[in-house]
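Amino Acid Chain and Its Fold in Token Form
===========================================
Scope: a single protein chain, as residues and as a discrete description of its fold.
Amino acid sequence: labelled as such and written in the usual single-letter residue code.
Position: the record begins directly beneath this header, with no further notes in between.
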Amino acid sequence: MKNIIVKAEHIFPILLILGLWLSSCTKQPQYGDSYIIQKDGLFGLIDSLGKEIVTPKYIYIEPIRKDGVALAVIDTIYTSVRDSSFLGIRNIPILNIKYGYITSKDKFLFPEPSYVKIRIEDYMDSIQAYSKFCQEASFYGGLAIAQDTTTFLYGYIGLDGDTIIPPKFREAHRFNDGRAAVQLDSKNGLKGSGKWGLIDPEGKNVCDFVFNHIETPVNGRAIASIMTINKEEGGVIEGEIGIDKNGNAFIDKTKATVIEASDDPIYSTTIFLVDDNGKVIKEDMGMTFQYSNFNKDGIAVAIPNRLAELFGRGYRFIKKDGEFLKPIDVTSITEEQAQKIIESKYFLNEMLPEDIEFADASRFTDGYAAVNLGRAWIFVDSQLIPRGNEEHPIYEDALPFSYGLAGVKLKGKYGYIDKEFNITIPCKYDSCAIAGRNLCRVYSGKRTQSGFSIVSYINKQNEIVWQNIDYQGDFFEKSEKKQNGIWKEGISYVYIGKDYTIVWILLTLFTIAGISYWAVIQTKRRNRNNAKSSAKNIETIFPIKESNEPDSSKLVLAKENVGTNTPDDISEDKNINDEEKKAIDERLNDILGF
């Protein structure tokens, strides 16, 4: 009896733990390795075995990220709005995008599509606006940007669709490592500034909004700029840029300047390297380079802009402290240091000059970067020492390492090398993409305006797992020719829905457990009542009296008012059989706690 009661009492915490575990398993979609495919100009996804998991019917799609969903653009249309001036005589083009977040089950995360409206400003065309949206709209760290299409302002939503950060920003970038770059609205922002800053996943500011622009930090570093410029007569230059004692950039407004009619416009622009809290690492990074995201090794590519190209500048690398990465000066190293370099792995018996700049360069990954020396590509390590093997020391083209492989070109064809610089996938393709986790995208066939006619996915054993022999190229440009203001019909928007199966299972288990528990309690209570009643009956027949023994705590059955034939042991009583005795013993044991 007690064992049954104990099991019943412990079943609830077991079911509770089971319920929480099942809920955690279904809280968000599971991450799966996926790859973009294209058929008839529309995009879908396959898994690492080449199985189609998202039907190609979208004009853009991204691979499934760690949040378990992929951004999928359903359609785009073009409309316009009047400008906000008094007369409102100018029409501003609007790019409307219908999109959603799709899972590996080919179903959307939310019950309705999402929408965004992007003003096509003077400095931006529709292709740029579209590309920028696709880069920023994915879920990262459980958050994605979302727009209030009435105010045109951006905020952030979670994977359950709830608003996490209200829409109050003029522009917003995706989150990375708990930070996102956002721009305050020029009307409702910090004194109407429209300045940029960084926020955390709760929407709290992590730095002052003083920048004219800032990127979302990657690996703890970001490029930011402050520009104080006004060309209008009578306008006010905000002040001079400075750094306070805490390392934060600010504008000293005590040095503001009013532009007179005869004065030339005053320019003051500074580019900063900042950390993920907006603190300045290096001031005045120069205006001749653009900087790619920092990798995990703390190195970024410095890409020359048009101004730099006019002066013959090339690609370089910068470190996390903002200083340029330079090759080792062979005239300043010791003989022991030189010997270590010579004996190190994959050394090509060559050193680069200290003032070298490259014709092109890839990012650093897995400790190496590909650089273009003008006519050939080589790989260098983080000290800019050339690395490779003697069989193939140089290449006609090269891509960065990714998941242990790097695409290279030899004798006019592309293949892949491993981190020991051995060719693992033969160079027999007309082009290739950066290697994926399990698959590599390669191109072959007839040359077309958008690339090549055949696109394939191969695994690391060089086996084709998926192929399209009629590659159509980019579909977005074709969609621009549609009539404005009409959404494309025919796409079945299937919602992932709420799976109540687990809920019903848990409710059923709890119901069964509850009924069982109630039945056990009722049985126990009934048995106790019966035991008490039986005990009273026994006491009536055999009154319990204290013994004459010295130990008065012992109880004996007094034989009072009993006939001469009454036995000394109740088991010998003909009126009480064995089964009744056993039942009485069990009830007494239950009462006395034995």
